[in-house]
Design goal:
Layout: E1 2-8, H1 13-16, E2 21-26, H2 39-42, H3 52-63, E3 70-73, H4 79-86, E4 95-99, H5 105-109, E5 117-120, H6 127-134, H7 139-154, E6 158-159, E7 165-174, H8 180-193, E8 200-204, H9 225-236, E9 243-245
Parallel strand pairs: 2-3, 3-4, 4-5, 5-7, 7-8, 8-9
Antiparallel strand pairs: 1-2, 6-7
């Protein structure tokens, strides 16, 4: 089920570049966080059915628009069909696996050689927070194991002359309001368990409150400047050497695309 397939300019600079990222937004999600900014599609209530052959055609059409990569957004629950679509397909641009980080290592091994860039979230180092917001208390250990496997496949990140990521792992972490300690623990986990100098890390402060958070009053506000400053300062003194930060002004709905079926047929 695909909701949109079009050039997208809302990713990190090494993904979007000047010509955009060829983003294919899949419907549904295997995590379904209560605060998801793509809630319109993550709940699986939208999208058009597409076969493996249809996916191949979508990838090729997007590639031909001149995008820097093919960016598969929340793809995990369709991994078998995506692997079939990518098998034997020479796109000439990197394939980006843009996921929640909540994945089985066995699933990722089925993608080896088909995906050049992994862009997982590392949402939680706190199991209690993962349980409250995503009903997944095992998220920290699952995500860490998944990211280790991603790095095993890609090795250290590689950029081209345009500053576009051609291969490697870019870990994203969204600061949540009221939970800066979780963000600090995520940074610690990356330092302790991953080759911090060989991956990219994106510290995101774009959290935007979405509808349906009546039972989560702590999430009904943006990240404060104080919370952001604490996390950014901690990152500055960590062993993580390469990546991106956002300012709190990044919050808002401007970069959420219209999930209207563009590019699917």
């Amino acid at each position: 089920m695909v909701c949109r397939a079009a050039p997208h300019f809302g990713e990190e600079p090494c993904i979007s570049g000047a010509r955009g990222s060829g983003a294919v937004f899949f419907a549904g999600c295997n995590l379904r966080c209560v605060f998801c900014q793509n809630y319109e599609i993550s709940r699986g209530e939208a999208g058009e059915p597409v076969s493996a052959r249809g996916l191949r055609d979508i990838f090729l059409r997007l590639r031909d628009t001149g995008v820097h990569n093919i960016n598969l957004v929340t793809p995990t629950h369709f991994s078998n069909v995506i692997a079939e679509a990518l098998s034997g397909l020479d796109l000439g641009v990197p394939v980006v696996w843009n996921s929640s980080g909540y994945e089985r290592v066995e699933t990722l091994r089925g993608l080896e050689g088909l995906v050049q860039v992994y862009m997982p979230d590392f949402k939680y180092a706190d199991p209690a927070l993962a349980a409250r917001y995503s009903a997944a208390p095992d998220y920290p250990e699952a995500a860490l194991a998944a990211i280790k496997e991603m790095f095993r496949q890609t090795g250290p990140f590689q950029m081209d002359a345009e500053g576009i990521l051609r291969r490697g792992v870019l870990i994203r972490h969204l600061i949540l309001p009221g939970s800066p300690e979780n963000s600090l623990r995520v940074i610690d986990a990356i330092e302790d368990h991953l080759p911090a100098g060989d991956i990219l890390f994106s510290l995101m402060s774009q959290y935007t409150p979405m509808p349906g958070l009546e039972d989560y009053p702590e999430l009904r506000r943006p990240v404060s400047a104080t919370e952001y400053a604490r996390c950014a300062s901690y990152l500055d003194f960590s062993a993580i050497q390469n990546g991106y930060t956002q300012s709190p002004e990044s919050a808002g709905e401007e970069m959420i695309p219209a999930f209207d079926g563009t590019g699917v047929k």
